[in-house]
Design a protein that fits this description.
There is one protein chain. By secondary structure, this protein is mainly α. It contains three helices and no strands. The relative contact order is 0.08.
Length: about 60
C-alpha cells in the first residue's frame, strides 16, 4: 500500500458518524503504538485516556 489506507478509512468512518471516525483514529493510533517500547506506549495511552475523559466531562455537563 502507498500509505493512503488510514486516511481513506478515517474519511469513510467520519461520513458514517463522529464516533466511527474517532474509533478508526484510535485504531490507527493503536497500530502506531504497537511498534513502540511498552513503557512509552502505556504512558501515551494514559495521556490519551486523561484527554478523552476531559473531553467527555466537558460535553456531558
Amino acid at each position: 500500500m502507498s500509505g493512503s489506507y488510514w486516511p481513506t478509512e478515517i474519511k469513510r468512518a467520519d461520513r458514517r458518524s463522529p464516533k466511527a471516525g474517532a474509533t478508526r483514529r484510535l485504531d490507527r493510533l493503536r497500530s502506531t503504538l504497537r511498534g513502540l517500547d511498552p513503557v512509552v506506549a502505556n504512558r501515551a495511552w494514559a495521556e490519551i485516556g486523561d484527554a478523552l475523559q476531559c473531553i467527555t466531562d466537558r460535553y456531558t455537563q
